[in-house]
Amino acid sequence: MSQMIYLDNSATSFPKPEAVYDFMREFYCEHGVSPGRSGFDASIQTEEMVFETRRMLMELLNGDGDPNRLTFSYNASDSLNMIIQGLAEKGDHVVTTMLEHNSVLRPLHHLMLDGTIETTHVPFDARGYVDPDDIKKAIRKHTKMVVVNHSSNIIGTVQPVGEIGKICKEAGVLFVVDGCQSAGITEVDMQAMGIDVFVFTGHKCLMGPTGIGGSYVMEGIPVRMTRFGGTGVRSAQLTHLEEFPYRLECGTLNLLGVAGLHAGVKWIRQQGMQQLHRHEIALWDKLRKGLQQIENVTVYCAENTKNQNPVLSFNINGVEAGEVGTMLDVDYDIASRTGLQCAPMVH
Fold first, then answer.
1. Which domain holds residue 210?
2. How far apart are CA 148 and CA 174, in angstroms?
3. Is residue 154 part of a domain?
4. I need a surface site. Which of 60, 185, 266, 329 has the fewest CB within 10 A?
């Protein structure tokens, strides 16, 4: 394992910083109790850590100032289901792109199959970017929201979400951003970019463990509740609580996941997000240039390092991708990702 060259960080970052492993173990050993459910010291201290994690993530995304609007879930797919299904109504039209992950494509497709919504998929250009004007042209009178992948998990291109957000505001359309590949490595400013809902996962660039993700919902965005259950608050009330964070959270949180995310965000702040991006994109650029010099290797949508995250896709002409991945693994101990990678429209 120590000799493995790990190139599957787009799926899950590995290994995590030692500070993440250390904090998860230490915190869970001392404070592995339900947060906010009881009045004893350990429970109160646990809730303080959870709230501080909400606050740090809100600041990282520049939300509108209320940490409780940062809610946790299992992962981004979980949150995107809650957001998309909680916003879409009968007769709505939704604009999205062909860069999307199945965590966006499938919820939208099922709503379309149910006859709830219509969907338009905007293409991307040969360089891997969506033209904001194409988004603007796709918006109709009954368009409810635009859902855009901030950075592709296949080609790493960072989309012009600020320009798209401005278009959405002018049209009175909600703007939802899938930030799985951007949170923790790319600057996100929800207020400046006009983002109404930002969805993230913890196990990629935020350096947390698997099984934790969430979203930040700006004030006034009408997300309906789609889940109901325990909150530890006003338990005699049979209807689920409407205020955040309970509106999108029910049941006991993945406390160990929140603790790992807490440590991951702290580590990112200490290292400096821009410095981390510069280091990773330098490695990406070295790999890109090396592959482009090899005959019969095709590298996709990687002209330069501008508006780019360190995700690289390539093929070897005449060799099936799965075979390449097997040879890299077995012969060279290089872990890579092959196949459609949950984003079939990109391919």
1. 26-270
2. 11
3. yes
4. 329
pTM: 0.96
117 with 235, same domain: the answer is: yes
Residue 170: partners with Cβ closer than 8 Å, 6 or more residues away: none
φ, ψ of residue 299 in degrees (nearest 5):
-105, 135
Domain boundary among 270, 295, 317: 270
Rounded to the nearest 5 percent, the helix, strand and coil shares of the chain are 40, 15, 45
pLDDT of residue 152: 97
HSE of 11, CA atoms in CB hemisphere, 13 A: 11
Q: Let me know if residue 146 belongs to a domain.
A: yes
Residue 214: both structure tokens together: 């969430």
d(CA 65, CA 63): 6
Residue 134 lies in a domain: yes
Same domain, 79 and 100: yes
In the block, residue with structure tokens 């609007």: 69
- Could you give the CA distance from residue 128 to residue 270 in angstroms, rounded to a whole number? 32
- The structural domain count of the chain equals 2
285-288 long-range contacts (CB < 8 A, ≥24 apart) are 287/312, 288/312
> Are 202 and 253 within one domain?
yes
The letter for the amino acid at 185 is I
* Residue 187 in domain: yes
* Separation CA 62–CA 161 (nearest Å): 15
Same domain (yes/no): 203, 55 = yes
Cα 130–chain centre separation: 18
- Residue 195 near residue 165, CB atoms below 8 Å: yes
